[in-house]
Structure formats: C-alpha cells, structure tokens
Amino acid sequence: MTHATTMTVIGPDEGRSVSWGGFGARFLIDSAETDGRFSLVEHPIGPRALAAPMHVHEREDEYTFVLEGRVGVRIGDEERVAGPGEFVLKPRGIPHAFWNAGDEPARVLELISPAGFEEYFAEIEALLPPNADEPRLAELAAVQARYGLTMDLDSIPDLVERHGLRFG
Questions:
Q1: Domain 18-160 CATH superfamily
Q2: At residue 4, does pLDDT exceed 80?
Q3: What is the pLDDT of residue 120?
Q4: Per-residue b/e over 5-44, b at no fewer than 16 CB within 10 Å?
Q5: Short-list 119, 116, 80, 118, CA closest to 96
Q6: SS3 string of the chain?
Q7: Looking at the predicted structure, is the pLDDT value of residue 6 above 90?
Q8: In this structure, are strands 106-113 and 61-68 parallel, antiparallel, or unpaired?
Q9: Residues with Cβ < 8 Å from 113, sequence gap 6 or more?
Q10: Which residue would you say has higher pLDDT here, 15 or 80?
Q11: Are residues 109 and 67 in contact, defined by beta-carbon separation less than 8 angstroms?
Q12: Any idea which of 55-59, 78-82, 122-126, 147-151 has the lowest mean pLDDT?
C-alpha cells in the first residue's frame, strides 16, 4: 500500500488547488494516498456559477456533501437544490450537472470513487478562461476522452437560462 502512514492535517488555506471562472478544486486526498480507492476534493463555486453542464462519468461515482451555500443538481431528469449538511450521490453512467443556486459562494466536498478523476481538474485548468484567452475545446475534448467523461455542451444555454446562471 502506498497510502500515508503518518498523520496528515491540511489547513483551510493549504493544499494544491486550481481555479477557473467561478469554479475551482482543492485537492485534499488523491489516488496515491488511498491506493486508488477514492479521492477527496473541495469545490468552491462562485455565486450563480454553473460548475458543470450535463455530463456522464464512465468510471467513477461522485458523492457530494454541501458545506455552505445552495447547490443545484440535476441527475437524469430530476433537479433539486441541496443546502449545508445535505448529501448528493451522482452515480457513474447517469447524466448530471451542478451549479451554485444562490447569490453567495457555495462550497462542497466531493468524494470520487474510484480515484483518479481528481487530476482531470488540474489538467483542464490551463484550457479554460481566465487561464486561456479562449477555451481550447479540442484539447479539452481529448482530456475528457482520456478520463471517460462525456460532456453535453448543448445543455449549457438551458441550464444558464432556467436557473439564472453564468458559465465561464
């Protein structure tokens, strides 16, 4: 096993993080620390930001715990807003999207199982504004394919309009 054998404490302002637009990721536990069983990522989501349009994961389930704010979630054809202390399961193979449904910042903890997908966030940081002048869509599609992720970009206008969101 390659997981940590000593105490690990990560302070609220510590850990590797990435950010673009109104969404980010702070890496708390990664694949190497859990022998690939799971990873834990904190996602800050700006007010009214669409964190992810409809998409499907082939390989992993995501377990989301809302720490603060109001987070809208669409899983399949169902939509719901989850608040602090609420838990949302986003199973692999099921289309889902999520966003900040409020005017204040939101923050969630996301457990990803099995691990590995957490590195997707690090890989796409340079491909999206404000870290790139324009979205580098061909490179983004290649990264998504490597991670078994199918993104429905056509879902963006509907989600943005119906929920009063901003994207990018």
A1: Jelly Rolls (2.60.120.10)
A2: no
A3: 95
A4: eeeeeeeeeeeebbbbbbbbbbbbbbbebbeeebbbbbbb
A5: 80
A6: CCCCCCCCCCCCCCCCEEEECCEEEEEEECHHHCCCCCEEEEEEECCCEEEEEEEEECCCEEEEEEEECCEEEEECCEEEEECCCCEEEECCCCCEEEEECCCCCEEEEEEEECCCCHHHHHHHHHHCCCCCCCCCHHHHHHHHHHCCEEECHHHHHHHHHHHCCECC
A7: no
A8: antiparallel
A9: 37, 38, 39, 60, 61, 63
A10: 80
A11: yes
A12: 122-126
pLDDT band at 165 (very low <50, low <70, confident <90, very high): very high
User: Which of 70, 81, 62, 136 lies closest to 104 in space, CA to CA?
Assistant: 70
Q: Which of 37, 93, 98 is nearest to 64 (CA)?
A: 98
CB 71 within 8 Å of CB 99: yes
Can you tell me which residue has the tokens 């692999």?
92
CB 47 within 8 Å of CB 125 = no
Tens digit of each residue's pLDDT (9 = 90 or more) over 82-129: 999 999 999 999 999 999 999 999 999 999 999 999 999 999 988 988
Asked if residues 25 and 35 have their Cβ atoms less than 8 Å apart, the reply is no
What tokens were used for 67? 């720490």
